[in-house]
Design goal:
Layout: H1 2-18, E1 24-31, E2 39-45, E3 52-59, E4 64-70, E5 75-80, E6 88-92, E7 95-101, E8 110-112, H2 115-150, H3 154-181, H4 186-195, H5 203-212, H6 215-218, H7 221-233, E9 246-248, E10 254-256, E11 264-270, H8 275-291, E12 296-302, H9 309-318, E13 325-327, H10 335-339, E14 347-351, E15 357-360, H11 364-375
Parallel strand pairs: 1-7, 11-12, 12-13
Antiparallel strand pairs: 1-4, 2-3, 2-5, 5-6, 7-8, 9-10, 11-14, 14-15
Length: 377
């Protein structure tokens, strides 16, 4: 009897040691063909949302590696392995996550073990089939397209482009349908975020799908972001009065849009760290110098980071930006950028004399022509 009691206690201890808490996760990965002692690196998106940064590492032993930690909500994560092209993608959440990574075809890696990763695997199965059709189409038609363009054969060019658009539409439709059919899946809200970056944003479709998402998904970080984007989208659209705002200038004085308006006003979203913005600045300076005396005003809104005030001030001086500049130094969390639903920079909003948005994101000759039209010059 004593032996049975001891065995029972040992079994309970074993079970308790392997159970995970409410916010705990364990990632169990496997990969063949990588020698012992090499490192698997766990990565997340950096602060810009455009790059990745390492947050943990684990030693690979006999083709296996493991990560443990805690998390409060689902998030997209990546694993980089040595000598492997590409990254394994999965959804970090509480529970045991299983990853089988194929060294020579990481995009075919298998993921599962938790609800959202099972859903992610289901999504990938359908999405991969359409992506294969797109890849095959490109391989078959690339040379035809080049030859048609070289021969100025617009009929063939237009036909190939139209067929390619159909495949893209098929992928977009699949993403929307998946989100509609799987309102509790974290990947569904990521599909909605992607829809905001399509050339023709269907805001009504986004609203409909977002409303149908489970509240647990709406309450995640990307879910809240999408909710904010949806509510702000119409407020800064062409034809609407530009939402007023105010923020400190480099000297700490608060400046508002209202006091910066001219006959024509450009709201210019930029940052000292944004290379395309800095490259565009000489063109904006030339435009300002030519038309300011005729009624063109500009107000610059910088998305620089906290602690980078000096970099912001230096960029203003170096680029000779003589119009009013403001910044909350809150990077992508800038409240003005959120109010205007700015997802990338440079971004510009062109306002008429009444402060109504008449155009967005014009560049070069198109911007100059619009300014001339509004000024009547």
């Amino acid at each position: 009897m004593k032996k049975l009691v001891v065995l029972f206690v040992m079994a309970l201890t074993f079970i308790s040691c392997n159970q995970l808490g409410d916010n705990e996760y364990v990632i169990k990965g496997s990969v063949e063909g990588i020698e012992n002692g090499k490192m698997a690196v766990l990565e997340t998106q950096d602060e810009t949302g455009m790059g990745l940064k390492a947050i943990d590492s684990a030693v690979i032993t006999d083709g296996k590696f493991e990560f443990k930690g805690t998390t409060t909500e689902p998030e997209l994560r990546f694993i980089q392995l040595p000598e492997v092209q590409g990254k394994a993608v999965f959804i970090l959440e509480n529970g045991e996550i299983n990853l089988k990574i194929y060294k020579d075809s990481v995009n075919k890696s298998e993921v599962g073990g938790t609800f959202n990763n099972d859903e992610f695997a289901k999504y990938n199965k359908g999405q991969s089939a359409i992506q294969k059709k797109i890849t095959d189409f490109r391989n078959v038609n690339m040379q035809k397209m080049q030859e048609a363009m070289g021969a100025n054969d617009t009929t063939t060019v237009n036909t190939i482009q139209a067929d390619f658009v159909k495949l893209q539409d098929e992928l977009n439709a699949y993403n929307v349908k998946f989100a509609e059919d799987n309102p509790k899946a974290f990947i569904s809200v990521l599909m909605l975020e992607n829809m905001f970056y399509q050339p023709n944003v269907d805001i009504e479709k986004i609203k409909k799908v977002y409303t149908g998402l489970d509240k647990t998904i709406q309450d995640t970080k990307p879910g809240k972001k999408i909710g904010e984007m949806v509510s702000n989208y119409a407020s800064a659209d062409v034809g609407k009065a530009a939402p007023d705002f105010s923020a400190p200038n480099p000297e700490g004085k608060t400046i508002s849009l209202k006091e910066s308006l001219g006959k024509v006003t450009i709201i210019d979203f930029w940052a000292s760290w944004c290379a395309p913005c800095r490259q565009e600045n000489p063109n904006v300076v030339a435009l300002y110098n030519e038309f300011h005396n005729k009624g063109l005003n500009i107000i610059g809104v910088s998305l620089d980071k906290e602690g980078d005030a000096e970099k912001w001030k230096k960029a203003i001086a170096d680029d000779q930006l003589s119009w009013p500049q403001i910044s909350n130094l809150k990077y992508w969390n800038d409240p003005v950028a959120k109010k205007y639903n700015v997802q990338s920079i440079p971004a510009t909003f062109i306002l008429d004399a009444n402060g109504v948005i008449v155009a967005k994101d014009l560049r070069g000759d198109a911007l100059k022509a619009k300014i001339q039209e509004l000024l009547g010059s």
